[in-house]
Structure formats: C-alpha cells, structure tokens
Amino acid sequence: MMTVSLIGISLPTFLIGILLILVFAVMLGWLPSFGRGDVVKLGGWSTGFLTVSGWKAVILPAITLGLFQMTLIMRLVRSEMLEVLRTDYIKFARARGLSNRAVNFGHALKNTMVPVITITGLQLGSIIAFAIITETVFSWPGVGLLFLQSVQAVDIPVMAAYLVAIGFLFVLINLAVDILYFVVDPRLRSMGGKAGAK
Amino acid sequence: MTSPKLLEVKNLRVEFPTRRGTLVAVDDISLDISAGEVLGVVGESGAGKSMTGTAIIGLLEPPGRIAAGEIRLEGRRIDNLPYHEMRKIRGRQIGAIFQDPLTSLNPLYRVGDQLVETILTHLPMSHAQARDRAVKLLEDVGIPSAAERINAYPHQFSGGMRQRVVIALALAAEPKLIIADEPTTALDVSIQAQIIQLLKRLCRENGTAVMLVTHDMGVIAETADRVAVMYAGRIAEIGPVQDVIKRPHHPYTVGLMGAIPAMGHKTERLTQIDGSMPRLNAIPKGCAFNPRCPKVFDRCRVERPDPMPAGRSQAACWLVKEPAHV
Amino acid sequence: MMLPTARVIEFWRKTSDSDIYWSFTRSKLVMLSALITLIFFIGAFGAPWLAPHNPFDLASLELSDAFKPPVWEDGGDAKYLLGTDDQGRDLLSTIMYGSRISLMVGFLAVIFAMGVGITLGLVAGYLGGAVDSFIMRVADVQLSFPAILIALLVDGVSRGILGEARHSDFAEAVLVVAIGLSYWVQYARTVRGSVLVEKSKEYVQAARVIGLPGPLIAIRHVLPNVLGPVLVIATINLALAIITEATLSFLGVGLPPTEPSLGTLIRIGNDFLFSGEWWITIFPGAVLAILVLAVNLLGDWLRDALNPKLR
Fold it and tell me: Where exactly are the structural domains of chain C?
C-alpha cells in the first residue's frame, strides 16, 4: 500500500495529466483532453458547471491535481498514526478496554490532525501553483498560464501582480489553518484566553 | 494454597526476537494474587517487572510475545484470548495505571468524556448515568469541585491531579485487579505519598487487588501485603512483605534491604551491591546473580536455582537448601 | 596506522554488521530500486560511450528517419530500439543524454540547496537573536510558497537580468540555482535545531569559559548529528529536484530543445500524442517516473532505517 502511494508522489503532475489524456481522451475517447466544455449563460455569468460536457471537462484536470496531494496526505497520516500509536495515552486507552475503533479513530486519528491540517493548508497553496501545470497540460487559459507566459516573456509587472494575488490567498489559507488548530487542539485554546486553571 | 486465586501466573516467559537473537525479558516467572491483596513487585530497571505487568493485560508491543507459560484470571486462561475477548477483560476485570500521568491522558478530550467513554464501554448504563458515575469517581479520587472539573481538559490539571484522574479511569469499571506500573515515579515526592494512600484506600474500599510495580522499597513496605523481588527477568524472592524485609533469604534481597536508608535508626553506612544487573543479552550461566553475589559457590555458576520454600517465603537460591543461614 | 587493505576489511566488517546494511538486505524492493538507480546512473553518465547514436550530431540526423516507432511496432527500424522523434533522433540515445542532464541538474541543485541550507542553519543557530529570527521567518514564508513557484520566479527574474539570449546559455546554471533555492529550508531547519541542542550543552559553555572557540568545537558535534537526517532529506530532495526540473522543462522555462532533458523530451512528445506517436512522450515519461520512484524508495527506506524510533 505504501509502495503504491510512493508511485503517487513519484509521478510528476504533468506526467499524470499526459497519461490520463492518453488513456481517457486519446485511446478511450471518453473525456475531452482540453478546454472547459459547453457553458450556459446565467444573466451576465457564464458557467460550465451546469452542462454535462462542462463537468466532463473537469474530471481529468481534477484527478491530475488531486492525485499527488491525496497520496501525500495519505503518507502523512500514516507516519503520524505510527507516531501517535506509540504514545502512552493510546496504550492507556487500550488498557481501559476501549474498542479498536474507538482507539484508532477516536483517540489516535484526532491527534494526527494538527500536522495534517498544517500540511493540507500548505498543499492548498501548492494546488494553486500546480494549476500552472494542469492548465498547460489541458490548455485552460487560466491565471496559471498567464503567469507562465509572463515568466517566459519576462513581464515583471504581471509576475508581481500574480504573486501578490497568490500571497494574499496564502494568507487567507494560513488564517483558516490557524483557526482550525484552535478547533482541534484545546491546549492552544486556553493559551490565548484564560490561562489553564490549576 | 486452597483459597481461589484471583490471578495466577505460571512459568511466564516473555521474549523479544531481535536480529541478534532472542532476548528473554521475563524468564519462567510464577506468581499469584488473591482477591483484595496488594502484591508489590520490586527490582532494578530492566528486571522485567513492567514487562510482567504488560504481559498480564496483554499489551506487549510486537515483536515482544509470550513464549511460554500461562496467565489465569479466576481460573480462566487469558493469555491466549483473541483481541476482542481480551479487550472486554481490560478495564473491566484488570485495570492499569502507567508511570507518567502527563502522557497517559489524551490531550484532545475532556477528562469527563474519557471517563464516560470507558464506563459506557464496560457497564450497561445510559449516558447520564455514566456521567453521574464519572463525577462520583472524580470525587472519590479527591478532585475538588468535580462536577465542574469534569469538563476540563487534561492540560488544565497538575501532575498529581492528572494521576488522580488516571486512577479514576482505571477504577471506572470496577476491575478486580489493578496493575499499577510505577504510579508515582513521575510525581513530586510530596505528592507520591498522597497518591499511594489514595490508591490503597480505594482498593481496600472496593476490594480491588493491586499489583504494584515499583523500584521503591519504601512504598512496598508501606503498602503491600506480599512482595516479589525480581532480578534479570526472574523472581529472586517472593513472600509476605514483613518476612522479606526482616528476614531476606536471597543474597540479592539482603543487598537490596541493606541499600535502603532507615529512618530513626543510626546506620553506620548503607551497603551496596557491587556491579550492575547483566544486560538481557548477557545473562550469565547458572544463577543470574552469581557474578555479584557475596556468597557465591560453585553450584551457582553451573545450575540455575528455581524458587524454593524458605520460611514463609520462596527464594531462588541454592543457599536456602543449605542449613547454614544467610 | 592500518594497512589500506586491513582498513577496507575493517570498514566492510563494520558496514556489513550495521543495522543499515541489515535492513538493506532484508527488503528486496529496496535492493531492486538501488539496482535500478545504479543502472540509470551508469546509463545516464555513460551516455557518450554507451548510447547507440549521438543525437546532437546534426550531420548524422536523417529527417526521413523521423517518427519511427519502436522496433516491435509495424514500421520499426532495428537501428532505433525505442523509435525516433520528430527530428529523426534516436529516442533511446536522447533519453540517455536527457537523463544525464536531468540527474546533473538534480544533483547540483541538491548540493546547492544543502550548502545554502546548512550554512544558514548554522548561522541562525549560532548567532540567534535577530539574525535567527530573520532567517527563520524567510524560511517560513518560503515554505508556504510551493517550490515550483519559487523556481519559476527565480527563472523569470534571471531572464530579466541575463536577457533571453544569454539565458539559454546559462539555462542549466539558472535551473540549479532556481531549484536549489526552493529546497534549502529543510536543511536549515534541521541544522539549526541540532545547533541549538549542542549549543546548550555544557562542553560548549565550558569551552567558552576557558576561551576556546566554542562554535568551532560544537560544529564538529553538530555535523555528525545531522548527517543522517540531511542524507535522508537529500535523497528525497533529489527525487523532488528531478521532478521540478522536468516540470520546468515541460512548461518550457527549463532547458531548451537543443539541450533536451527528460522534461523537454516529454514536452516535445506531448505535441504528437494525438497523432499516434505515443512513444516520444511515454518512454521519457516512464524513465522519469521509474527513476524518481526508485530514488524515493531509497529515501523512504533510508529514513526508516535511520530513525531509531521506528525500529
């Protein structure tokens, strides 16, 4: 299983995209290899989320982007679980006769969440970056492609604008991550407000 | 030996297979505990005392395994039970307290939730009943304003208070036996006595038997009914606590007693046992204690003694058979 | 004062007795990936001698040989084992030369990242205070930006500084710096942590008291301590660096088609995917994936073998 997940993080994103196109678009012809499909006009807003071909066009890019992140988080949860399962409170939970499910999912998994949230937050950021690759592979005229062209053309103002926009997004993501910490870990909660009572 | 024993351990052997051969952490140990009795287990670190406790509740970490012997709870064999059967015994029949209260509680759950979860796992109660019981348990272990503190998280308690919570958790489903593995070692000296007193009182009130694993002879003398002295994975001497302290038979026990400072007595100087306990991969032939024993003779270097009756105790020493007293 | 042979024997005895060697021989998968990595290294670095053709010798290229499929397909030519690309270059040879470039860039980038990271980590750990805060904040900020963005940014800026024409002359160096700069943070953090631990130890305090250069003594203690973790990071980083290089080249900001790395080859082949010449993309892609997988497997194993907690 972990060897399978290693394949997941060893395949470069662009290669996954190319392979998916080769299999599902060129060989099987099930899904489109580029573009965004048909769009519907809703007032002044055109969207591809209301058409079948629009959804079909999303499938391959979504898998391309998601596969790497998925395997990465899978490996992270595994290594964190291995760490947590060695702790005293897990041993004590077992000694109290709690069921395997309660120990593994209730007690252990929740304790792996803090690092998992951290990394997932960072991964959200890299999804934005990897969109550059996905947009290139699937020929989507998105902001990632714009950035790529600005790098190739040394268009410093566009590069800077892109980075500022991305940086702002990262700040928002980090804020969300910090808020999630507080939800998950009570130790952080009491540090902020009233100090932990004796 | 006619009264029914709560726990019987016969010829228990715990092994750790490693790439450089098998380490024997617990070697051919037999002991028993009656209902309501407190059995102290003393020994240096690495003597196998914690390992014995862990083996009894079936929580040896792989690759460690029980290689031989049997463990019986009220006559029923429990060392070969499948996981889900053993799970019903843990907490319900045999409770456990570990060394470090700071790490024994899950930091992300309120202590009340951990108590209620344990109670509901073993006892047929509604959630509200379980919660009432949880408050009662916290009161019993001496946590002030338990009804409010039940909603606190572990990090909001001090070390001593946390160990009280741990004791409440171990007692939550009224087990018949508690295995307390160094329950006070991680605590301040001033709190140690309180916790031991608490444990003693609660177990007497509930008729719970205790296997008290510690390296602190003072705690044993004060608390235990009987004591087992362990050395290098084996029992050196086992017997009523007063006998073992006052009239030790095994030279190792003699040395151990000599190393305890007695209060109120004017002792010239504390005796010490030369050398140190052998590592598990280098246990000498014959009696494991022979290189350090002041009374060693030829037989000790060749043949390994098994525990044999010595007064009201049992001691694994060839000297016991000899008329000349230790 | 041991004789060299005695030393070798002694070294081998110690190595074969070590836990690492033991865990190595226990896993067939690890041994297989070590073998694959070795074969790829030999194939890549021995390309000028081992490759059947020289794809950069323009005189030998025949445009009529373009788009030849692999030997086992219809129309395959025994001269070209894995077929040819759009310019009639032998694919096997291009892949061997391409892996050479990919591996070179990967190695150099890792060494660059290691140098920067270890130096900054040492400086941050020793000087502490404002310098430490500054370096570690930069590290934090950089960590929240994905490596590929940083590499793209460095590449873009260098284009601006060097100009387009000179940029392609320095493409390899730019890539090394770009990738190296995006992976230094982990080394710096590891080294800094170890420095902080060593610094608080008594022998350093004692050395200071009697006027010896404590930092120098401590560095000698820090470096052996971080050797294991740094090696693990470096192995996994090598895989990442190869992927990053391939990605940049695929995006067209890495190595130019005149000097194709694996990523460039995949980019070239991608244009012909729909017209049925799948081999131009798939073979370099497979080589890239297998190489990265093998290196990752080695890194994974190394991490577990060096981590006493998991044993």
Answer: 36-47+91-310
Specify the 3-state DSSP secondary structure of B178.
Answer: strand
Question: For C268, what's the count of Cα atoms within 13 Å in the CB-facing half-sphere?
Answer: 27
Q: Which of B236, B179, B170, B238 is nearest to B210 (CA)?
A: B179
> Which of A87, A95, A106 is nearest residue B59 as measured by Cβ atoms?
A95
Give, rounded to a whole angstrom, the gap between the first and last alpha carbons of chain C: 36
A19 interaction partners in chain C (CB closer than 8 Å)? 285
C-alpha dihedral, C137 to C142 to C143 to C147, nearest 10°: -170
Q: Please, what is the Cα angle at A55 between A52 and A58, to 5 degrees?
A: 150
C-alpha–C-alpha distance, residues A119 and A125, integer Å? 10
Q: In this predicted complex, what is the ipTM?
A: 0.81
B156 → closest Cβ in A96, A107, A197: A197
Which residue of A96, A114, A182, A189 is the best one to mutate when testing the B interface, meaning the one whose CB has the most B CBs within 10 A?
Answer: A96
**Is there a domain that residue A79 lies in?**
yes
Q: Is A69 among the domain residues?
A: yes
Nearest-Cα residue of chain A relative to residue B159: A198
Phi, psi (degrees; rounded to nearest 5) at B184: -120, 0
Residue-averaged pLDDT of chain C = 79
Lowest mean pLDDT among A64-78, B157-171, B202-216, C70-84: C70-84
Kindly report, residue by residue over C223-265, the tens digit of the pLDDT. 777 777 888 888 888 988 988 888 888 888 877 777 788 888 8
> Strand, coil or helix: what is C250?
helix
Q: Which CATH superfamily is domain C36-47+91-310 in?
A: MetI-like (1.10.3720.10)
C120's enclosing H/E stretch is helix C91-127
Q: Is there a contact between B49 and B235 (Cβ–Cβ < 8 Å)? A: no
Query: Residue B306: how many CB atoms within 10 A of its CB?
Result: 12
Q: Which residues pair with A132 in a beta bridge?
A: none
**What's the alpha-carbon Rg for chain A, to the nearest Å?**
22
Alpha-carbon torsion (C122, C125, C131, C135), positive or negative:
positive
